[in-house]
Design goal:
The complex is a heterodimer of chains A (about 500) and B (about 220). Chain A has about 500 residues and is of the alpha+beta class. Chain A has a domain at about 1-105: 2-Layer Sandwich (Beta Polymerase, domain 2). Chain A has 16 helices and 15 strands. Chain A has helices at about 1-5, 30-40, 95-105, 195-200, 205-210, 220-235, 240-270, 275-295, 315-340, 340-350, 355-360, 365-370, 400-430, 475-485, 495-505, 505-510; strands spanning about 10-15, 20-25, 45-55, 60-65, 70-80, 155-160, 170-180, 180-190, 235-240, 305, 305-310, 435-440, 445-450, 455-465, 465-475. A five-stranded mixed β-sheet of chain A has the order 1-2-5-4-3, with helices on both faces. Chain A has a three-stranded antiparallel β-sheet with strand order 6-7-8. Chain A has a three-stranded antiparallel β-sheet with strand order 13-14-15. In chain A, a hairpin with a 4-residue loop joins strand 3 and strand 4 (about 60-65). In chain A, helix 7 (about 240-270) packs antiparallel against helix 15, helix 8 packs antiparallel against helix 9 and helix 9 (about 315-340) packs antiparallel against helix 13 (about 400-430). Chain A is globular. Chain A starts with a helix and ends with a helix. The relative contact order of chain A is 0.15. Chain B is of the alpha/beta class. Chain B has a domain at about 100-220: Rossmann fold (3-Layer(aba) Sandwich), CATH 3.40.50.12280. Chain B contains seven helices and seven strands. Chain B has helices spanning about 1-15, 55-65, 75-95, 110-115, 150-160, 175, 210-220, and strands spanning about 95-105, 130, 140-145, 145-150, 165-170, 185-190, 200. In chain B, strand 1, helix 4 (about 110-115) and strand 2 form a beta-alpha-beta unit. Classes of the chains: A alpha+beta (about 500), B alpha/beta (about 220). Chains A and B meet through helix 4, helix 5 and helix 8 of A and strand 1, helix 4 and helix 5 of B. The complex binds iron/sulfur cluster. Iron/sulfur cluster (SF4) binds next to helix 4 and helix 6 of chain B.
């Protein structure tokens, strides 16, 4: 299989802690074979995108794949000059249905033989093809969005949203139910579409980094880090190892606080608000320490490409160690309560199951995939040179229910605590600074992939001097929202909030 | 009975604070390294209007007390703002202020901080404020912005479903001028373009203390 891919490789490089990344140039028709090949080898699609290529004055279609035992493949094909079209990959990777619709709305490049003509991001309030270089947009139709109907004796629909009852983001859910049982859930998003792709065009790198840190507020570090990695790769720039360690500390702190908050929210939806308050106290403590060390509770704007906005000095590192000891101690005792609370486990187990088979079929990513037994962690990819040590090893749970996702969050939280400790030790040992220096190989486009708390956050960027020529970013929520539709099947309506929380996916990340 | 209700409604109506931009949040603006990212590109039109002496006094009171960088903010600070909130809510809203939140397209950062004011550190419910699930039960609407064009109708409908006094507080720099998303094709630059707002709490995102003191100021 590798041989088949190898013939197309134009060049290979590495990203984040020496992980391999291969760029492939293939003819358009070959893309279908490659998608099938990757699917058969347990790989997943990270994202797909179309973007202009300035040197050849043509448009390219990019697909980005992650193979667990090997590396990342960025496969690109040039499109025809007149009436360009891309190919339908949705039979291999279901998320492509939504991605292809979004691509059509933003660039007016349609997918060949693709039946679903409903708009995804565009609700009829702005023109189609806003990202086209020649500015030839087309007014959008304002058609009724046709949900797929379930008919039969006693089947009826419950529409929910876009404004939800809790303090969460907007999105629409259409349930088809019989009695209490859910037969089908269909999602409709796009409500928080803010046109960030277009805003990023021609922005100064620094401003773009601020903006991309606000694609999804809870993953701001992951986005900013992925963007920084992409820019640095583009320029062939290697940051000094201390900065990399500090950035990873930020990333792990973000994971830790989000997981703790999420576990609390899930437990609250299972009917134990008193226990939740312990988790939210822990989270608040982490936030306050963040504000203390990094001057921002969510660490926004702490990472910028080619440099570092916030540096951690010696004192915060010392106090971070004592902080983590406290946090870990409390988290362990809470873990014990959650594990042994009969009523709670009764509610969490066998609710909202995604089997390993389903997770593979849907091409799920990140935490959701791990909870269903598929480990595709960017941090665990084998390094390119075979020596750089991996920071952590793979972890999975297999049951794929809400309880598994809670358990996975605990595991990842403890891992994060250990990782931060490891990083601090290394930082303290690295007294002699390695200097920033230019790497030999600048690339046309740079790709940054970071394992955020939901899964791999991807940013692809092409730079033009100190401005962004174009930039594409992708949230793992795109893939994982599909899992919610499947997990809810045959559960009762009252369990939807619990199941939805157990995934805690981003609306803004997928809409932006 | 109806007369009585009408009187109350009128009274509440009169109590309604003046509309934006007379009031501007005291919230801290400077961010990491003293820059103002996230508040980028706001036009001079959006800059604060002069305040009345009373407001200024109130604001300086908070300004001195706002702690954004201390490790554990003193418990008193929350308690003081909270006590002031309870007194006002007791008088104006018969002991309970119901708030409905609408996310009109935010990046989720502002939501996180609104969730945070419900955690045991701030526990805003102890001061009589609680979040309700329906706009029909709400005295106050919190809007996190920017308002995306796709959410415009939903926001308007929520506002229309609210009973008087229809207080509206917009949250975040994005609500003021679009923030980092300013001038995108998919958003409206201010919440004011859709519904009238009483007050803006600035910050990206504003801290829980900013939000609490903002609610207090908005109550007049
Ligand atoms: S103000 Fe900042 S945190 Fe709030 S929605 Fe806007 S960008 Fe996000």
């Amino acid at each position: 299989m590798m041989d088949h891919l190898k013939q197309y490789i134009i060049h290979s490089t590495s990203f984040s802690n020496n992980k391999p990344l291969h760029f492939l140039d293939v003819p358009l028709s070959e893309q279908l074979n490659i998608a099938a090949l990757i699917k058969n080898n347990q790989g997943v699609l990270l994202t797909e995108w179309v973007a202009p290529n300035q040197t050849t004055k043509s448009t390219h279609w990019f697909t980005l794949y992650l193979l667990s035992d090997a590396s990342i493949y960025c496969v690109q094909s040039p499109l025809k000059q007149t009436r360009p079209t891309i190919l339908d990959l949705s039979s291999q990777f279901p998320v492509c249905n939504r991605l292809q619709r979004a691509i059509y709305e933003l660039t007016r490049i349609p997918t060949r033989h693709f039946k679903d003509k409903r708009y995804w991001l565009n609700h009829g309030y702005f023109p189609l093809g806003i990202l086209r270089d020649n500015g030839s947009t087309k007014p959008a139709r304002t058609l009724h969005y046709a949900f797929k109907k379930v008919t039969g004796d006693g089947a009826h629909e419950i529409p929910v949203g876009p404004v939800h009852a809790g303090i969460i983001e907007p999105g629409h859910f259409r349930f088809s139910v019989v009695g209490e049982r859910i037969l089908k859930l269909e999602e409709r998003f796009g409500y928080t579409h803010k046109g960030i792709h277009q805003l990023l065009k021609n922005k100064y790198i620094e401003d773009a980094s601020t903006l991309i840190g606000r694609v999804s507020g809870d993953s701001t570090v992951a986005y900013a880090l992925a963007f920084a990695q992409a820019c640095e790769q583009c320029r062939g720039y290697i940051t000094n190892s201390n900065v990399i360690l500090e950035r990873n500390i930020f990333l792990e702190r973000e994971r830790l606080m989000n997981h703790i908050g999420d576990i609390g929210a899930i437990i609250n939806d299972a009917g134990l608000p008193a226990l939740q308050s312990s988790f939210s106290c822990l989270k608040e403590r982490l936030l306050r320490y963040n504000a203390h060390y990094m001057k921002h509770r969510y660490m926004m704007d702490c990472i910028t490409p080619f440099s570092q906005n916030m540096r951690l000095s010696h004192t915060p590192l010392k106090s971070m160690i004592t902080e983590l000891i406290e946090i870990e101690k409390e988290l362990r005792s809470l873990h014990k309560i959650v594990e042994t609370h009969g009523g709670l486990q009764d509610r969490l187990q066998t609710t909202g199951i995604i089997s390993t088979e389903q997770a593979h079929q849907l091409g799920l990513l990140g935490l959701t995939a791990k909870a269903s037994g598929i480990d595709l962690d960017i941090r665990c990819l084998p390094p390119m040179d075979g020596i750089t040590p991996n920071f952590i090893s793979a972890r999975t749970t297999i049951t794929g229910d809400v309880a598994a996702r809670v358990e996975m969050r605990f595991k990842e939280s403890f891992d994060s605590i250990n990782l931060i400790r490891k990083f601090i030790k290394q930082l303290e040992a690295n007294t002699s600074l390695t200097h920033d220096h230019e790497h030999t190989l600048p690339t046309k486009i740079g790709i940054g992939i970071v394992e955020g708390f939901r899964g791999p956050v991807t940013v692809i960027v092409s730079l033009d001097n100190n401005r962004v020529e174009w930039c594409h970013f992708h949230d793992p929520s795109w893939q994982n929202w599909l899992a919610v539709e499947y997990a809810i099947f045959n559960n009762i309506v009252a369990d939807f909030p619990l199941i939805n929380k157990s995934f805690n996916l981003s609306y803004s990340g997928q809409d932006s | 009975m109806w007369q009585l209700t009408k009187n109350i409604i009128q009274q509440l109506g009169r109590k309604r604070p003046r509309l934006f931009p007379q009031l501007i949040s005291p919230a801290r603006e400077t961010r990491a390294n003293g820059d103002q990212r996230g508040a980028l590109h706001c036009s001079p039109l959006d800059s604060p209007a002069p305040l009345s002496p009373l407001q200024a006094a109130e604001i300086s009171y908070f300004k001195s007390k706002i702690q954004t960088e201390t490790l554990i903010p003193s418990h008193d600070n929350i308690q003081q703002i909270g006590a002031a909130l309870s007194t006002k809510i007791k008088k104006q809203f018969n002991r309970a202020l119901s708030i409905r939140l609408v996310d009109a397209g935010s990046c989720n950062g502002c939501e996180l901080e609104i969730q945070a004011i419900n955690n045991p550190y701030y526990n805003i419910e102890q001061f009589g404020i609680h979040f309700v699930a329906s706009p029909r039960h709400a005295d106050m609407l919190l809007v996190t912005a920017p308002v995306s064009k796709n959410m415009r109708d939903a926001l308007l409908k929520t506002y229309e479903a609210m009973p008087f006094p229809k207080l509206v507080i917009a949250i975040g720099n994005c609500a003021q001028c679009g923030g980092v998303f300013k001038d995108s094709y998919a958003i409206l630059n201010t919440v004011n373009e859709v519904i009238p707002i009483n007050y803006i709490i600035k910050g990206c995102p504003p801290t829980p203390i900013d939000i609490m003191s903002g609610i207090l100021i908005a109550l007049g």
